[in-house]
Amino acid sequence: MAPATKSSGRTGTPRDPSRRALLAGASALATAGALGAAGCSRVASASGVKGGDLLDRLRAQGVARLGIAGEIPFGYIDANGELTGEGPEVARIIFRRLGVERVQPVPTEFGSLIPGLNSQQFDVVSAGMYINPERCGQVIFSEPDHQMLDAFVVRKGNPKGLNDYADVIRAKARFATGSGYAQIEHAVEAGYPESDIVIVPDQVAGMNAVEAGRVDVFAGTSLTTREVVKKSRGTEATEPFAARVDGKPRVDGAGFAFRRTETRLRDAFNAELRKMKESGELLRVLRPFGFTKVEMTDLTMRELCRA
Fold this sequence. Notes:
disordered N terminus
């Protein structure tokens, strides 16, 4: 892979998410992206109907296109070339109940998900996207389906003692995170210079950068860091922690994003998601991807948009 570069710029799986599967998934991501682009470069344009008519059009065509970012466990193409992950599996169930038989992946980089959604390259973002005020100004979100703390990927034994952002600053550690990740904001809020942050495409690249010694620490969600180091001999994940934003501990919630005109689709999606939460089905669907009761949430979209 190419060396990590700096930028001023985010914030499990039923099959064993081994490093081989992670790398194969990344390879399949590029292939699927080409196929998705060839199959349909744009979804149908908005109709101007109040609340949007996308749900009707998806029912008629029988397929919903999901924007994913190739990130395990949230939404990715596995080693067998199949779409899976937390977001796609929940979306697949909900869309079927809404009368849409299939979902189709449209892979892109995480930072391109909202622009891709708003330029109608796909119908919904299904990638474990954190709900925050800035994004709420660009898209509308479902209710969150899970919550998440931060954690680090560090060298085995954590030689620099990096357990939170204050430790990173104290140790003058070389810090990396993913393109568009919320952890950029969390590090800057703690006082780490944004211009010094090394931006990598995803958690696999982050782990590789730590293993190779290009950086001392990679920050991601507690779940992604926990999963990515499982097959790594040279790295480990730290204990989860709440980043401090505006002086308060931050627990982030993630959901599905829709174009602002498509409130009817979002509301129908929310109704089915609520049923899955209340019945316990949501946790049963997410558990194979490494989610636990700790990641289940009572946070609401409205409070996260105001945060």
